[in-house]
Design goal:
Helix content: under 10%
CATH class: Mainly Beta
Shape: globular
Strand content: 35-45%
Structural class: mainly beta
Largest sheet: 8 strands, mixed
Strand order of the largest sheet: 6-7-8-9-4-3-10-11
Low-confidence stretches: none
Number of domains: 1
CATH topology: Metal Binding Protein, Guanine Nucleotide Exchange Factor, Chain A
């Protein structure tokens, strides 16, 4: 199965040829700053499965809470966040769920894991049934 996604303005499109993915919320301060929200929702897929099919995303390198580089990819026109490549997870890509097409942002209605729960805002409760990791497991 392939999942597809795009930015808000349609300049960038991508696909990932995967049978399944890990659905993850990340509450690290890097994700909070990058997204402008309390967390990011991510479809975590093998890095080799992700292909940009239209346009060229821009990227920004940030040193994450892990002390490693987080490379954030986004549309240079509209600024939509698309995916992140983490040095701490060199074989995986974290696709931002909000950029997915076909209502896939719902990620099957289930979150598998929450990362950096130590940085989760106190007004948010843990997702029931999701594994809780203080940082990256």
């Amino acid at each position: 199965m392939a999942i597809t996604g795009s930015c808000m303005c349609g300049s960038i499109h991508y696909s990932a040829d995967v049978d399944k993915y890990l659905s993850a919320l990340c509450h690290c301060t890097d994700c909070q700053k990058w997204s402008g929200g309390a967390f990011t929702a991510n479809a975590v897929v093998p890095r080799t499965s992700v292909k940009v099919t239209k346009g060229t995303p821009s990227s920004y390198d940030a040193v994450g809470n892990s002390g490693k580089i987080n490379k954030h990819f986004f549309c240079p026109t509209c600024g939509s966040g698309l995916y992140t490549e983490l040095e701490v997870m060199p074989d995986m890509t974290c696709i931002k769920a909000g950029s997915l097409d076909n209502k896939e942002a719902n990620m099957g209605g289930k979150i598998d894991i929450e990362f950096y729960v130590k940085d989760r805002p106190s007004y948010l409760a843990p997702v029931e049934g999701a594994k809780q990791e203080p940082m990256f497991g």
